[in-house]
Structures are given as structure tokens and as C-alpha cells.
Design goal:
By secondary structure, the chain is α/β, with parallel strands linked by helices. It is built from 13 helices and 14 strands. Helix 1 runs parallel beside helix 3, helix 5 packs parallel to helix 7 and helix 7 runs antiparallel to helix 8.
Amino acid sequence: MARTKKIFISDIHMGTAESIEGKSPYGWLLANRAALLTDFLGKLAGDETLAELVIVGDLFDEWVVPYPGHPVPPIGSPYADQFAKIAAAPQNQQVIQALKNLANNDSISLTYVPGNHDMLIEREAVTRIISDKVKTVITGPGQGIYTSGKVAAEHGSLYCMFNAPDAYDNPGHSLPLGFFVARSQAEGTTTGHPVTKKQYIGILFDMLSKMAHHEKIAQAVFESVVDAIKAPRNSMEMDGINRYPGSIATSDVSETFKNLFKEWDKNMPDNVPATIAAIGEGAMLFPAALLQYLVKRKPQNVVVFGHTHEWEVRGFSLSLKSIEELLEDFALIRRDIEKGDYKAALKIIEDLADPGPDAGSDFIYVNSGTWIDGDSGVAGDKPPPATYVVIDEAGGKTTTEVYQYAGGELYAPSNLLGSRFTTK
């Protein structure tokens, strides 16, 4: 049987043992989902149609740590780094073993691309923890693009204003504002004032609509999150992570990143415009994929992102809209966001995608979703589905699908989410 399938997963967010312990666990991958992922990886090992598994970032999570917690092991710890500590957590050991088994399967390739929550991971750590047979695609902190023929995959956080590696606002460091937001979300969960993803996005769009000038929007969003969590302290331990000694006050974080929006286009000339990077924070990465791949006429026409924790699959056909017309739409999006009418901008974005997959697409964007079940911090909240992307290159065309995994067989028609898209 020919091995023509590639599977993409992302945003697993394995945390430390203490992250899921106690009355207020703040970790994003709890024991039940870790067991489900282990079962899934075991099914992949026996799939005779699978050629490769690509992890598209955030397998590990060294960001979601409360203010007084340790983002790296303290001096005297038996662990070489935070990634080793996370791998040794009881809930994660089964996942790591399943990945080792896949890496040692000569019929299936295993590839690792970093995300933002594992931004500081290096090739040596992947080799040490999983296997030297893992293909690591790391070109910088939180950066790496997997390519194979017409397919490209990267985490997607590079195109999000608060989560792209940032060596500009605080020279000598690469951790972005999103690191400090994640620390604050973890703190809020432990103190009984969690800021859920829905609330966070609400804060973002509220600021976009209220602020006549967006230069200080990063500062305003961070300060709103800090106010919402009602933290009993105003500083977070850093322990030397990314060359941050001691601790850092939340007021210093706010001051450091206050010009993030204003200086984005100057600092990131090869990235998406500031307006698109801002709405990327609102879990909308389809525009970034179009700009970075289709508009730049890169050879890949199937693009996989993660990061948003929301599965998605969209097609785009040049027979319906030319690249020149697409650029006109992006100019309108920028105009609407700059005047505070983000709803009009979102309507334009929604209309960018093909109405259906039947005719075949010139470009396909797909988001791999997530496996987490604990990020809201609110007891009883329904977790997002555990999802994976399947790309099949059989028959000279590329077919893209998103499935939910809830146990049972792979590729069950009842677990197909959305539509099946095929390139022309």
C-alpha cells in the first residue's frame, strides 16, 4: 500500500507535573487529553498509508507559568532545561514514548517545527528528549517552515503581533509580549480570575474599536489582562529565561512593548502589515497565509498553520479574484481597522474564501487546531476538539482534510470536520 498521507498536529502544550495539580490547575494539556494523544500516536504507527507526521509547534509549553512559578528549572534541579522537566511529567511520559516509537519507525518520518510556547527549544533538546531521527526545522526562536513539494507548514505565530519573536522592543531578548500575557493568564487561573481565550480576544477587539490611534494597543491589551486577573503581586519570576535575570514588574513589561504596533512595519518589513498582525491575535491567520504565500507567489499552494487553537480549512481560486483584487481587499481591511471598524474588516476577510470546495482551489489554507483541554481555567468549560490535518498527495492532486480524534479509527467519515479541499 502506498504511503501518500502526511498528518499535521499542533498546539499540544504539554506542561510540567505541577501545572495540572492542585485545586486550580493552570496547564493546558490535562491527563485525559495526553492519554488520547498517546492513543492517536499509536494508531499512526500502525497506519500503512502514512508517510509522515509533522508537529507544527507548541508540543511543549514553557510559557504558561504563574507569576511566582519557575519558567526554567532552578539551580540544583535534576533537569537540563524546562523541556526535559516537561517531558518527565507523569502525564507526558506516555506521549514522549509514543513519539519515540514513531521516530524509530523506518516507514514513517517525524518532523518537528517550533511554535511560540516552545520558542526557545533547540535541535539538541529535541534529539535528547525524543530521538536523533526527528527532523527538526528550526531557523530561529519560534521559527521554521516545513516544505515538501506544494505543501508548507509553520506555526503561524510569526504573523501575530504579540507572539512573533521580538528582538526589537527589548534588544538581547526574543520572548514577545505574548509570553507575559500567557504568564498572566496562568496567574489569573491560580487566583480565581481566569482570562479565557474568548475574553482575551474580546479585549483585543474592544481596544481595536475604541482606540482612535492604535500605537499603544499592545500596552492597552496587556494592562487590561493584568487588571482582569487581579493578581496579588505585580511582578513575575524569570529565573534567567531568555537572559531575563531575577524578576520583572508588569509595569516594566507594559513600558517595554508600548510601541509594538507603531514600530511593527519598520521592524518587520518582510512580515505582514501591522493591521493584519493585530487581527492575527484574534485567531485569524487566513489573511497572513494569503499574503505570505499566494501574494508573494511562493511555490507552495497548500499552507498549514497552527497557533489559533481553532481548526479551519479554506480555499481560494484566482478565477474568482485576482491577486490585484486581493490586494485591494487588504487595503480596505487596513482602512477599516485603522478607523476602528473591525467588524467591517472581518466581513471582508470572511468573504475572501471560496464559497465551496467543489471546483478545486488554487490555494488552500488549513489550521491544525489543538489538543488542549485546560486553557480556559473555568471548571466545566467544554474543551475544543482534538484535531489533525490530513494531506494526501495521491493521484497528482493534493487533498486536504481536517479530522477530529475521539478514539476509534483514523479517517472515520463521521469525524471529518468541514469540507474536503483539493488543488486544481
